[in-house]
Design brief:
about 1200 residues; single chain; five-stranded antiparallel beta sheet; 22 helices; Methylamine Dehydrogenase, Chain H; alpha+beta
Length: about 1200
């Protein structure tokens, strides 16, 4: 016999509510496509596409202050699969690395006991993808292995560290924001701590620094407020500590590198954002807010375009896009066109209503597409905004002077026409085109469309309101109601509303505004209706207004159950509904109880004045409904027999009787019989009274004298033959009514607040609530099953309890959460795959490793079927999508779908250069040879965020533009000198001479600069002068003056030698930069190839970067070889396929070996993933070794199927759109 039945399986889960102030910074949107957010000591994981919570992680004991998803910047295969890894740090200094799918902790890290200030996974993941850098207050940075929890190194600094930011272009650079200024570290490495203390610079607060303004000419109009701010910010970063009166308080809110441009950094102040150029350490752009504007709280720079997402104090998110500098010339007033990086406001979303308890905390943007933002609000709401683009001219304000935004010229390499109906708003870079730079011809307006951007609210997640709560689970599941049962939980809140949650999905089912004051208690009267009561605050007589409402869920109808009663009376203490939901007892504090009939809504009895004061009350589960029903059935059958005469056949008789019985049983529910029910209650002396109710008669029964060992009774529970009493001193008294035994047990936990029996026949578990926690008891064995206590194993107090199913409890706690827990009451995260989600979630990282890779291979290329289908079940799919376009395009969008950072980087660069070189090849078919090095002019560039990987011509223009800006902004001799140096390297000798001649006569380097200017102007290409200069330069370099020597070499057009020297002395980045701006393609490519070799060396180990460099040089064969040798088999095969398709690689004797090897390995990989047709196709193109694999694939199936033909006849369902 089964001891008791188990309800529908409900997953353990946590319903979360408002956030704590410490959770403010704890939010992150990962490459995997999910948002993680700290809520008190737990972490929510949300899916932004469907706006649902899919996991709550519980293990921290203190408030969570930081969460970070691991980066996906590595190659994924079975040994390093797509996974969901999250690191979280709390206010007690503990860091936990989670496996989010199973809800378990990988490892736990503890160093100090102060809150973690900042956390970040290392983004350069060639060496290891488990490295986690953390700031432990006050001044330590520690590098951890996030997989094992071991400490790799620890370093302390002189000041308190607030946060840090990594340079997205160079993994060895990072900046720390400290309490006094910024510390730049240039030798960051995972193998050893930075050796130096870093270069320290101080920030003078922009308002406090003395105005370094040139005296304005008298005629010029007085500058406006914003202009004044700009003038003030001329000098910001100083190397010496500013004087005491100059530094007010370092109110810099945030520092981060710009991922869209190298060596630029952003500093956020409440009223302005400063853009610094780090080569000059000087402001080159300011976004200031007018006096009436709303201050900033946070800004996120984008990588795909030079744009900023800004969050303001009123919860408004604005998008600002950098203005094209080539549009500057139109300004007539030269003073107005002062060169600045200007960020124009292009779009903003609605603000929220900010109150004392409701403020915007943080925003995060989607790192893959950068076109979605999520805003976290302190009341637990998450607002999901999406940026949408639509074509059309702006009619709003022509005088605002904003130049129009244009859509990109091409999408994934395929050019777009002007008749494009809608803009591909897949990501930010497919919505708006690049910011133009000076000296670059804008594309003809005929092929561009103007774009308007707007924010659209696409999702909203809301949490529970502020505690306290009163919770009650709806009546339990039975065999009768199993067809329409919903596990609903009603939670009454302090503002008078009742929230009803469906616990299968954990989503809010209904929110009903029922009362005008705090809800004190709820009782369900059926599966779809409940009674709730609320009491207002007492007046000076101690009387209150009582509200007792009856609520019907399907219709939402509420009515006052006690009619006009309720004003100016003592407060209601509790309401109790009988087991058959027939009667209701209302207990008051200083007034006799009332007995109501729920079905008719009538008052049956108001007890007399001398009625004892009730301290605890409970209805008995026993009743006489069954015997009553039996009597009725017997009477009816007798009636039925009399009406049917004996002459008629018995068959008719039985059928008529059954019909009558049906009719009777239907009418029975309408004119219900009143069954007899009992309740017991205790008075202040502990005496137990027994009262019977039947219809409208109330009878007083036996009285049992008090038990001497018990104090004042606080609560009673009764189920079957067991009655349990709990008192204010923490004693539990178990009565066995059948055996007439009683047994008292002291729990020593103080006042017993509530006790409740679990549902289910024969289930004798009991849930007990104390002021400091809860316990589960087994009343059969009279022993404790599990216990939780505030301060010992949990850090929240329990406000209310109930049973959710026969084996799970639901607890409301003072951290604003409602938790559904197993009977053991251990706060455990649940496995994601056990959940019932209302909407399906697209997140490959949730799948088993193998399943995710199979899905990816399946979606990639399906040349074996001739058509492309998204349907993985292989059934006959009616809308087969014919895919047209390049392979790269598909790979590009697929890596976005999977959130695969390394894939995305590789295919973005690869598709761009494959196309470039394919076009070049078509152009240079006539001129044989050297075609590998020529780069044709192209209408579309790689975005500047790829830095060194861009085309030389574009890169050069960008650098010139940047120096021009630096020159306008320079404010000291140091700056001027740096500008002159840059101009010399860029070959702009005339401008450099002008700057050198500006040196004032009292400057110590006046003489030196003047001579340099003479030298630069008189250099002729005569032999002797050249050899002299070369000799001097080499001597300088040998004696440690590297920069000066390189300048001299550049003057005499020996930039290639200069690059070689730079590389010898380890200045690899500088050499690559110089090669890009000064050398012709052939020489430049040599320098970059040497750099790529250096990147591949074991001590540097940045192979993925090296591959990208080789791609930009068009060394496609080498890239294929490297991918293959690194065992990136799918990437290698697909890349070689793309090369063959676009004609930049030929299948000849030399290359066949690589091609066949790559295809063979890819076929093996597909076979291991179970995609046999795909494996057969690639094997058929892999030469002799492939034939063996084919035989293995189709053993015992009578040879090769017809689907796989010879190499020439393979029908690939991809048409190139060139």
């Amino acid at each position: 016999m089964i001891p008791y039945t188990v309800n529908i399986k409900l997953a353990a889960r946590t319903l979360t509510g408002t956030l704590n102030l410490q959770n403010k910074t704890a939010v992150d949107w990962g490459w995997q496509g999910l948002i993680a957010q700290g809520c008190h000591s737990s972490i929510l994981v949300m899916d932004p596409k469907t706006a649902q919570t899919i996991q709550v992680l519980e293990r921290h004991k203190a408030n969570v202050v930081k969460v970070k998803w691991s980066r996906e910047n590595y190659y994924h295969n079975l040994s390093s699969p797509y996974c969901l890894r999250l690191a979280s740090g709390d206010a007690s200094g503990k860091i936990i690395v989670w496996d989010v799918v199973s809800g378990t902790a990988h490892c736990e890290i503890q160093e100090h006991s102060k809150p973690i200030q900042d956390l970040e996974w290392l983004w350069n993941q060639d060496a290891s993808r488990d490295l986690l850098l953390a700031v432990h207050p006050p001044n330590y940075i520690v590098l951890w292995n996030g997989d094992t929890g071991t400490k790799l190194w620890k370093k302390s600094y002189a000041e308190n560290i607030l946060s840090f930011s990594f340079d997205p272009f160079d993994p060895s650079n990072m900046a720390l924001l400290t309490s006094e200024g910024i510390v730049f570290i240039t030798d960051f490495s995972h193998s050893k701590p930075p050796s130096s203390a870093g270069k320290k610079v101080y920030i003078a607060s922009p308002h406090a620094s003395p105005a370094h303004t040139k005296p304005a000419p008298a005629a010029a109009p007085a500058p406006t407020g914003a202009k004044k701010a700009l003038n003030k910010v001329k000098v910001l970063i100083t190397n010496e500590k500013p004087t005491a009166e100059a530094v007010t308080l370092n109110d810099c809110l945030q520092l981060s590198y710009l991922p869209s441009k190298r060596n630029h950094m952003l500093l956020l102040y409440p009223r302005e954002i400063l853009i610094l150029d780090l080569e000059l350490s000087q402001t080159v752009g300011v976004v200031a807010i007018e006096r009436s504007g709303v201050p900033f709280t946070q800004v996120i720079p984008c990588a795909q375009r030079d744009a900023l997402y800004c969050l303001h104090e009123n919860g408004c998110i604005t998008l600002r896009v950098c203005r094209s500098t080539s549009a500057q010339e139109e300004a007539a007033d030269p003073e107005q066109s002062v060169q600045e990086l200007v960020y124009d406001l292009r779009s903003q979303c609605d603000a929220i209503r900010v109150t004392k308890t409701v403020r915007p905390y943080r925003m995060v943007i989607c790192p893959v597409n950068e076109n979605k933002a999520a805003l976290m609000v302190s009341d637990g709401r998450v607002m999901l905004w999406e940026l949408k683009a639509h074509t059309g001219r702006s009619v709003a304000n022509p005088s605002s002077g904003l130049s129009p935004l244009y859509s990109p010229v091409s999408f994934c390499g395929a050019p777009l026409g002007p008749n494009q109906k809608r803009i591909q708003d897949l990501s930010l870079n497919s919505m708006i085109s690049q910011t133009l730079i000076a000296g670059e011809a804008p594309p003809p307006s005929s092929i561009q469309q103007e774009v308007q951007l707007k924010f659209l609210l696409t999702g909203l997640l809301s949490g529970l309101p502020l505690p306290p709560f009163a919770i009650r689970m709806c009546p339990p599941l039975t065999t009768k109601n199993i067809s329409h049962y919903q596990p609903l939980l009603a939670a009454g809140t302090s503002n008078g509303s009742v929230l009803v949650y469906n616990l299968t999905s954990g989503l809010l089912h209904k929110e009903l505004s029922v009362h005008s004051c705090e809800v004190r208690g709820l009782e369900w009267v059926s599966l779809t209706s409940f009674l709730s009561f609320a009491t207002s605050s007492p007046n000076n007589m101690g009387l209150v207004r009582n509200e007792l409402q009856h609520v019907d869920l399907p219709t939402g109808r509420c009515f006052a159950f006690r009619g006009e009663r309720g004003n100016d009376e003592p407060p209601i203490e509790m309401i109790k509904v009988s087991h058959l939901k027939q009667y209701l007892v209302v207990v008051f504090r200083d007034k006799p109880l009332e007995l109501w009939d729920i079905r008719t809504g009538t008052l049956l009895r108001e007890m007399a004045k001398n009625f004892p004061t009730v301290t605890a009350l409970e209805w008995s589960p026993s009743h006489n409904l069954k015997s009553l029903k039996k009597k009725q059935m017997a009477a009816r059958e007798a009636m039925a027999r009399q009406t049917v005469s004996d002459a008629e056949q018995s068959s008719v008789e039985s059928s008529v009787i059954s019909l009558l019985q049906d009719a009777e049983s239907k009418s029975e529910t309408s004119q219900a019989i009143s069954a007899r029910e009992h309740f017991v209650f205790t008075d202040t002396d502990g005496q137990v009274y027994h009262i019977t109710v039947e219809g409208n008669t109330v009878k007083d029964g036996a009285r049992i004298p008090p038990d001497g060992s018990m104090g004042s009774i606080a609560c009673i529970a009764w189920k079957g033959d067991t009655l349990v009493l709990g008192d204010v001193d923490g004693n539990l008294n178990f009565w066995d009514l059948k055996a007439r035994l009683s047994r008292g047990i002291p729990t020593h936990r103080g006042w017993v607040k509530k006790i409740r029996f679990a549902p289910g026949k024969g289930n004798q578990k009991l849930l007990v609530m104390y002021t400091d926690g809860a316990e589960v008891w087994d009343t059969k064995e009279v022993q404790m099953v599990s216990s939780m206590r505030f301060g010992r194993n949990v850090n929240y107090r329990i406000l209310d309890i109930d049973w959710c199913t026969s084996d799970k409890v639901v607890l409301a706690s003072d951290d604003g959460c409602v938790r559904v827990l197993e009977m053991a009451m251990k706060s455990a995260s649940y496995r994601m795959d056990e959940q019932d989600l209302t909407d399906p979630v697209w997140c490959p990282s949730l799948l088993l490793p193998r399943a995710a890779l199979t899905l990816k291979a399946f979606l990639l290329l399906q040349p074996w079927s001739g058509t492309f289908t998204m349907d993985i079940t292989q059934v006959d799919y009616n809308e087969k999508v014919e895919i047209k376009g390049l392979i790269q395009e598909q790979l590009n969008s697929l890596s976005k779908l999977f959130g695969d950072e390394s894939d995305l980087n590789f295919w973005t660069v690869a598709s761009h250069y494959l196309q470039l070189f394919a076009q070049a090849r078509q152009l240079s078919v006539t001129s044989e040879g050297g075609s590998e090095e020529t780069q044709p002019p192209s209408q579309n560039h790689l975005d500047i965020c790829h830095d060194i990987l861009c085309e030389s011509s574009y890169f050069q223009k960008f650098q010139l533009d940047r120096v021009h800006l630096q020159e306008v902004k320079r404010s000291s001799y140091e700056h001027t000198k740096k500008c002159a140096d840059q101009l010399l390297l860029l070959g702009q000798t005339d401008r450099a001479v002008q700057l050198l001649l500006e040196t004032s006569a009292d400057n110590p380097s006046y003489y030196c600069d003047s001579l340099k200017a003479c030298l630069v102007t008189t250099i002729t290409s005569s032999g002797p002068s050249q050899s002299t200069i070369k000799l001097v330069a080499t001597n300088m370099i040998a004696n440690g003056k590297l920069a000066e020597g390189v300048q001299l070499l550049c003057l005499i057009d020996k930039a290639a030698d200069a690059c070689r020297y730079l590389q010898t002395y380890g200045e690899w980045n500088r050499a690559a930069w110089l090669a890009k701006v000064r050398l012709n393609p052939a020489e430049g490519s040599d320098v970059l190839k040497r750099w790529a070799e250096h990147l591949c060396s074991p001590q540097v180990n940045q192979k993925s970067k090296a591959i990208l460099v080789l791609l930009s040089l068009g060394c496609f064969y080498k890239v294929g070889e490297m991918l293959h040798s690194m065992r990136y088999f799918d990437r290698a095969a697909l890349f070689i396929e793309a090369c063959l398709k676009s004609g930049v690689m030929e299948a000849n004797d030399s290359s066949n070996k690589l091609i066949e090897a790559a295809f063979l390995e890819y076929a093996r990989l597909l076979r291991s993933l179970g995609l046999r047709e795909g494996a057969a196709l690639w094997a058929s193109r892999a030469g002799s070794a492939g034939e063996q694999l084919m035989e293995e694939l189709f053993q015992g199936e009578g040879g090769v199927p017809e689907a796989v033909l010879g190499e020439d006849e393979v029908e690939v369902g991809l048409e190139s759109t060139e």
